[in-house]
Amino acid sequence: MDAAKVAQLRAFVGHCKSDPSVLHDPSLGFFRDYLESLGVQIPASSASKSHVKQESGGMPSTEFGDGNKPKQKTEDDDDEDEIVESDIELEGEVVEPDDDSPQKMGDPSVEVTEENRDAAQMSKAKAVDAISEGKFEDAIDYITEAITLNPTSAILYATRAKGYKSRGMAKALLGKWEEAAFDLHTASKLDHDEEIHSVLKMVEPNLQKIEEHHKKYERLKKEREQRKAERLRLRAEAVDRKAESEYLSVLQDGNVVGIHSSVELETKLKAATKLSRLAVLYFTAAWCGPCRSIAPVYKSLAERHPKTVFLKIDIDEVHNVAHQWNVSSVPTFFFVKDGKEIDKVVGADKTGLERKIALHSTKV
């Protein structure tokens, strides 16, 4: 048999010894059935495991997404379905280098005592036992302790590499590609051999495919958020256009609008403010001669300045409004912008009225 596959199988068996619950993984059902046919008692699963699927090359791949719990739609997502990640056909070319800190190496300049040598050998023996039992994390800890005690021993570094190598191969068999790549690259930097290289040739393409898969769905999610933002913007613009249309209907461009209540005046001034328009309040009375003479001029100005709001208020009909604006004589004209008085003309001053309207309407 191929040496690399035998090494992987050995590492996998060691992993099963340390954690028998991996045999309950759905993708290993065929292997579990085989063991049970031989009379083997499989321990109960101690924790749920990640779902994996078998690839054509004999290596399992991680299955992405949770099909049992579909996400609920929100009000903002009513125009598009939720993005569901598909399975990956694992293949690729390279794996990104890690930026992890270097392994502990000890201080080679320190003189190693016999006591430290003996302690290092004991830690090494524990590491070897841990590897045979599939306890790779413990093995790495033991051999790191041994290296710290005796940093001059090359064989200790090689043993630590073996721990990373065994754990990486086991994780590769379980389809844990990122973890497998990390361990195998670490082992390769410590003590490279062809067997590690052979396994990495199968792990790295899958890891690359997983990375591309994540990037693809991050891009899809980003595009979806951008479309969502665009929809919200268009909705807001539609609301603004509708509101503007309603305000325009209230103001009646090019006409003098009669005011018959304080509420009506407030509505017209609010509409003028929303549209950033100048409003002119013309206070008049039926018995006022100068008012009758300036009225045609005021109407003509409304026609010439359709973007200015021309309002007409009879002080006898809505005397509370006249009182509110402190009108002491008629005709009186108030110029209002953003709800605030900015100018005033008292009397039937045609020239002054025209000048003030031309002045303030150009600032709108």
UniProtKB/TrEMBL annotation:
Residues of the Thioredoxin domain: 237-362
Coiled coil ranges: 207-242
One BP annotation, GO: response to stress
InterPro entries: Hip_N, Thioredoxin-like_sf, Thioredoxin_CS, Thioredoxin_domain, TPR-like_helical_dom_sf, TPR_rpt
SMART domains: TPR
Segments of this protein annotated with the region Disordered: 44-118
Gene3D superfamilies given in the database record: 6.10.250.3420, Glutaredoxin, Tetratricopeptide repeat domain
One Pfam family it belongs to: Thioredoxin
UniProt feature, compositional bias: Acidic residues: 75-100
Gene Ontology, cellular component aspect: histone deacetylase complex
GO MF annotation: an example: protein dimerization activity
Keyword match Zinc-finger: no
Keywords: Coiled coil, Repeat, TPR repeat
Database matches in PANTHER family: HSC70-INTERACTING PROTEIN, TPR REPEAT-CONTAINING THIOREDOXIN TDX
Protein name from the UniProt record: TPR repeat-containing thioredoxin TDX
Record organism: Dendrobium catenatum
Phylogenetic classification of the source organism: Eukaryota, Viridiplantae, Streptophyta, Embryophyta, Tracheophyta
Annotated gene: TDX
